[in-house]
Amino acid sequence: MAKEEPADAVQPAPVKPPRPQTVxxxxxxxxxxxxxxxxxxxxxxxxxxxxxxxxxxxPLTVYQAAGSKNYTILDGQRRWIxxxxxxxxxxxxxxxxxxxxxxxxxxxxxIHKLRKDWELMPTALKLGVLIEELEENRDTAxxxxxxxxxxxxxRCKKLLSFEPEFQDRMLDPDPETRLNADLFIEMYPIxxxxxxxxxxxxxxxxxxxxLMDKYxxxxxxxxxxxxxxxIKAYLTAARKTGxxxxxxxxxxxxxxxxxxxxxxxxxxxxxxHTEADSLTRxxxxxxxxxxxxxxxEFVAEEGLWxxxxxxxxxVRAKLxxxxxxxx
Length: 327
What we know:
Helices cover 54% and strands 7% of the residues. It has helices at residues 41-54, 77-85, 101-112, 120-134, 139-146, 150-160, 164-170, 181-191, 194-197, 204-216, 228-241, 244-256, 268-292, 302-321, and strands spanning 19-24, 28-29, 60-63, 71-75, 90-96. By secondary structure, it is an alpha/beta fold. The longest helix has 25 residues, at 268-292. The chain is built from 14 helices and 5 strands.
């Protein structure tokens, strides 16, 4: 049962008033609950160049834990990293009261939000701590607490379902070898699909590794992480046509065969069913248009009537070829 805890209960109270001051750079330490733990070199170098010119203009937001001589950073870790790199002995700070664990994480989220260049896996890990600490698992409630979009919370929870060995690939400090969270988010609907999980050959880890390899090495026609959606679409179509077993046989072979493309997974019966669905919708729209047509309004439009007559002949021919009742 989730704790019904008001949002104010996880908001840390600032010192009144905040105490702006300057402290030794080495008296600060990184916040272990910062959802942003990966700092790529290029943006750091840009910030470092700015600080070399004008110094640290915006004070860091910090708190001092009970019994500690050091200050823990709530906001400003990148400024602190750059200050250390260029040898600044002091930095400006604003001190707030020591937060609880939940307050700490929520405050970090609300201070930083989720900037475009953030990696999602570190955010997901801190969200996981918050879920356990507050016993709150509802996407909307977590979004309200953290300031994240509900869609981002949902994506984070998908990442939390992956084993540590795969999470570590998204936490690689080197951006060149780090795997993007989108890869695993797009893969998620396949590895959790009920049809796939029912297969006698199903092995979650083996399937994840195989799909990772195909994407990373551009095998089997993979060009984008969104290509995983094609596989999911084939699974859905197979369920509608009762051809799941045929698709599972193909998928099993697909895992080990680099020459087999994504398109090869499609079952003919499922493809035909999908095309028939699409045609049915188009014909239905056309019927609505024809039904609404006012003959008096278009009586002089000879080209329109010729097309309708041609359509009637084509429809009659198709009905006869399909041994359907003739018009």
